[in-house]
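Proteins fold reproducibly. Look at a concrete instance:
___
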Amino acid sequence: MTKSTKSKAQTRKEIESQIENFIRKKGEIEQVEMGKSGLQDGKYNTSHIGFIEPKKDRTPLNHVVAAIQQRKADKKAPTPAINKPRQPKKKVIYDDFGEPIRYVWED
């Protein structure tokens, strides 16, 4: 069994033929103002909106949140920095043509 999908052109032709059949059977197309079709008695139809059920109580998870925050705090504990004396670095001095001339030690 293969499920055949319709192309956009086929869907357009099908819709156009349905409209032609409707008009042939003396059906009338009514022009409606923009935004009017979603209103009932001048208000939006709220019967299909998903706020019909009462508000559910939430399960308190304060202990879980505290454990997660504690793990984050443990990971972020900074390690003490070891102060090493800075060693001098070798810097190259170049001439105007990009050729190295000499090396200089900088602190």
Notes: The mean pLDDT is 83. The beta strands are 39-40, 43-44, 89-94, 100-106. The chain has two helices and four strands.
